[in-house]
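Support request from a user on the community tier.

User writes: "When I paste my structure tokens into the form, the page sometimes reloads and wipes my input. The last time it worked, I copied everything first. Here is what I submitted, just in case something in the input itself triggers the reload:"
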């Protein structure tokens, strides 16, 4: 795949992706230790069929919500 090529633009993208992943994982860990009134804590407290979400699923949800919100906000001015 083209994205796997060691081009500078792709390297920057992967570095930014890794940094975002570290930030989200840190937020999940903070919410595990100190529950608050935020989305990540809400996801940790949620249950489906009597079972809570694994931390990896919470991380995935938080990442999706972050990226979806950014894409929506970025698209609005274009219209």
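"...and here is what came back when it finally went through:"
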């Amino acid at each position: 795949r083209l994205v796997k090529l060691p081009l500078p633009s792709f390297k920057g993208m992967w570095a930014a992706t890794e940094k975002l992943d570290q930030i989200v994982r840190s937020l999940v860990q903070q919410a595990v230790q100190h529950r608050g009134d935020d989305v990540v804590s809400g996801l940790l407290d949620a249950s489906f069929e009597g079972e809570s979400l694994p931390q990896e699923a919470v991380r995935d949800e938080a990442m999706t919500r972050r990226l979806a919100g950014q894409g929506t906000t970025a698209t609005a001015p274009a219209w």
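Agent notes: The reload is a front-end session timeout and is unrelated to the input. The longest helix spans residues 8-33. Residues 44 and 79 are 36 Å apart (CA to CA). Escalated to web team.
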